Amino acid sequence: MEMNDADDEEFGFSRNYFLAKELGGSAVKSHSKLSDINIVDEQELRAAVSNIEPKHEKEIKDLISSYKRLYPRWAFDLRCGLGLLMYGFGSKKTLLEDFASTSLTEYSAFVINGYLPTINIKQVLTSLAEVLWDQLKIKRRTPSKSLSKDQQPFSSRSVEDLLAFLDGSEDRTSEFLVCVIIHNIDGPGLRDSEIQQYLARVASCPNIRIVASIDHVNAPLLWDKKMVHTQFNWCWYHVPTFAPYKIEGTFFPLILAHGNTTQTAKNAVIVLQSLTPNAQGVFKILAEYQLSHSEEEGMPIDNLFATCRERFLVGSRPMLNSHLTEFKDHELVKTRRHSDGQDCLYIPLTSEALEKLLVEMTQ
Amino acid sequence: MAPPSSASSGEDSSTPDTTQSQLQHSFLLHKASDKLISSGKARRRRRSIDLSPTKTDDDDKKQSDDERWLRMEAFQLVWSRIESTINHVLRNINARVFDHIRRWVWDSFNAIKPLATISPGPFPLVSQVTCTQLFTGLLLTNNMEFVDDISTFQELGLCLKSHGCHVANLSSFDFSSKNGIAGCLTSLLRQFLMSTFDAADMSILASWYSRQGNYGSPVVVIIDDMERCCGAVLSDFILMLSEWVVKIPVILIMGVATTLDAPRKILSSNVLQKLCPCNFKLGSPAERMDAVVEAALVRQCSGFAVGHKVAVFLRNYFLNQDGTLTSFVRALKIACVQHFSTEPLSFLLGWLLVKEDSKGVQSEKAVKLASELLSLARNQIAEQTEVTIVHSLTELTKLQKLWSTVVLCLYEAGKCNKTRLIDLFCEALDPDTYNLLASDGLTGTGKGFVQSLSSDHCMLEQNLSYRKGRLICQLLGRVRDLPAALLCRLLNGWKNLTVDVPEIHDKVKELQSIVKLDEGSCKPDLKEISRRHTSRSPLKIGQSQSINEKAAILMDCMVRDFMKPIECTAFHEIVCYRNVENLQSALIGDSRKMIQVDLLEFHKTLQCSCCRRSGNIPLPSMPDTSIMYTLAQEHGDLINLHDWFQSFKTIVIQYSRKGTSKLKKSPLKKRKERNESENKSEASIQARFCRAITELQITGLIRMPSKKRRDCVQRVAFGL
């Protein structure tokens, strides 16, 4: 009986593609609309999402703790100079951090939240360089020694300089000092070949080892052979956890939420929190303007630039534009044509939502 | 130090602290405390001095700790040997080409120098056409996979540096259209001047070159793969260099992967005019591969060995999957790491190496520890002492040396007909071949070698034929057909290879002496001559064969008597890695397949009793995402969201109904509660639907609705 099932399943897979192509036409013909579903109120839906009853809690717990027996092996791999790449269904955030906290206590553990859509690689590299610098100071036992005069502080160095520092061509042993944990190295904010090149260069730094997780089925396409074989040096581990993607899923719009185009205040807050204070300031100016000029179609860009420069939030037009691009990417801000032909910026939220957002931002 | 979050709880407790860290781009989870670093060091020092396992109660943990550190050290010892051997081999292969390049660089420099000295002004004088030509070396790598050549170009750079040149290594990434000419110039300045400039300019480089100490040496710019560069940027770069060549004597070396006319394809004719090319050629990947296999695995520089299945996997991985030497080396490294991390006795390999090196007694204690471990692991030989281990290990090493000698002899025989060493290596490791011969009583351990030599035909061909060991049989045939001159060369090769194995060495010399006798009267009918001589010869290899036949019989006997695969010897676990499944899964993670398997066959991983699947029917107890993905299998490449939701709802509602029917309440209350709970359950079903879709989106198995088709999502994967 079971054999038959297995055969059926296999047969199912093999014909799936062709079936899919055949069914393609009929699926379009199925005229059922999403709007036919009696969708509950958005707030209720969000409340329900945060209260979903977990299934198989015990089994999931057992499964995750069963991976503890692999910890010594993982640590061994890292010490031997390999990188760890964890894949399989389920959030691996807690698993990786637990591994680092139990088995890698003799090294510093630095976490990169790759699932954040707004992640800024330069900021991340700066913090990492600071961590490594601290670690090197401890090792050399020269705590008083700070960065020499001709060296700038990390925050004002270029990405290239930061990478050069991490790579450490100076007198340094290849001892493993810092473990970098990258949650979702395939996250939407890191899916860029340049960023992956930077991460690969970080991985090949002598004092650094990488533990990363992937969730996307096509994640391996991010890397070329040089990155895989000589820089990341991946050692793959299949560790499905079936744990819900709680935090990783926050940044995706709910498919049943009001046409899934408008962002709610809550989502906006989450996105805004991961931006720089200056970017938040720019957004605040726009929000305040919109609240006080609710009858207008939006805030003219020149107007916004002038106000932002007055408050020292931006120094130049390109700087403002880069903030605006980020807002637009997350649909926090939209543009429309004013009646006099000028482009205006507006936030696609109701006044109440906007007020709430401002309150939450200031908290 | 941040509090460690517990992995045991599937749900993370969202305290404000963790929420904060979850939304930060990055954060420090914990610092390595000073105490821990120093204690780790102290432990290491203590361990290397005192290896004896203590007899106290807490020795269990300490022993396993010690053992782990020993294994780590053994790995480092073994891998550093393998790595340096491989580097050495690769360097040797390139040495001749590098030497040519070096001489050409200096010749070219001497040709430019006189021009440079007559133009001392601050700006380059472009008066003569000839002086603006740029000496360009085109290095044909013969390899599409430039990853294998990265180290070659670095080595070339180092080689030239050591001979007094100023060298900058640029990669094709520096020549991207995004950064333009500024990108490569910045990289150039960074490498020569060791600092960055806001405005990269060639004049900075010129003034650097005119400084004391820099002047008088050629400036070499190496570009690893010119075909990957953006053509326009590379053209600009070449034009710029050629303008400045009078001030800065730049010599360009470019890697070419395909053919030597590649520059013509990506550069325009006016740029080509500026080049004065000279061609060089590197060895092919297959040649390099065989050299690496020979040095690292057959000659066993480190004592580390792989089993037959692993060898076959490594070969197939190289031939079918990746084709790069780099990936082969990485696979070997992972095999090595896994060997030392999973095999408890593997640390003895480190001891073997140390013993070989220093002949010291320091590590005798490691053997003691091993014997204790062994007795714990295998009760049946508990009474055996460390003497057994020492003896067995020595025996193992001896057998390994014999094995590798025979394999190299076979390789020598196959060289003229381009037998790949990696194929031969795999066949020589096959324990089945050996067991097959052993079951027929055809193997020996060298004692019966002389007797078996007296047989008048080869045993291998009869007994192995096409079942196993085909390559070895082919080689036997090849030796039989070898022309006299080549046979002479082969015997010479064998003589050199078998210096350490007197049994074989003597026989080879005997064969050689017969050949020498023949040399004076080299007649076409070699068979006749050899027949005449064999009657007089004291060598008892057969009675009436040609020299070729004798050589074949000698080879046949070598294989049967001395080529014992590692897996057929005792204690091979210590040095031999055999777990091909582990290696494969660590090397090639099939995320596309495995994530789908996780979803469709999750009950195998979670091992829950409630979700034993019956056919393809999803059960309400399954995880929501699994239900959704199972349902998606029934759809075409577009999934109607409404339909999908309805079928999801039908399945999960079974569960809710079952749940609520158990409750017994008064009818009035019941109705009111039912209305509320229905509302609630509708919301919760929709919420679960939404989250399942989000999770499928994270895994990339579905694509979100486009503006055109708002009611459908797109399926991405079809079948595993």
Describe this structure in words.
The complex is a heterodimer of chains A (363) and B (720). Chain A is an alpha/beta fold. Chain A folds into 2 domains: 57-247, 3-Layer(aba) Sandwich (Rossmann fold), CATH 3.40.50.300; 261-362, Orthogonal Bundle (Arc Repressor Mutant, subunit A). Helix content of chain A is 49%, strand content 10%. Chain A contains 15 helices and 8 strands. In chain A, the strands form 2 sheets. Chain A has a 5-stranded parallel sheet with strand order 2-3-4-1-5, with helices on both faces. In chain A, strands 6-8-7 form a 3-stranded antiparallel sheet. In chain A, helix 6 (121-140) packs parallel to helix 7, helix 11 (265-273) runs parallel beside helix 15 (351-362) and helix 12 (277-292) packs antiparallel against helix 15. The N and C termini of chain A lie far apart (61 Å). Mean pLDDT of chain A is 82; it is low at 1-6 and 259-263. Chain B has 720 residues and is an alpha/beta fold. Among the domains of chain B are: 118-283, P-loop containing nucleotide triphosphate hydrolases (Rossmann fold, 3-Layer(aba) Sandwich), CATH 3.40.50.300; 591-715, no CATH class. Chain B is built from 30 helices and 11 strands. In chain B, the strands form 3 sheets. Chain B has a 5-stranded parallel sheet, with helices on both faces. Chain B has a 3-stranded antiparallel sheet with strand order 9-11-10. Chain B has a two-stranded parallel ribbon with strand order 7-8. In chain B, helix 26 crosses helix 28 (624-632) and helix 28 packs across helix 30. The radius of gyration of chain B is 35 Å and the shape is globular. The model of chain B is unreliable at 1-14, 36-57, 118-130, 379-383, 521-540 and 659-665 (pLDDT under 50). The interface between A and B is large, with 134 and 120 residues.
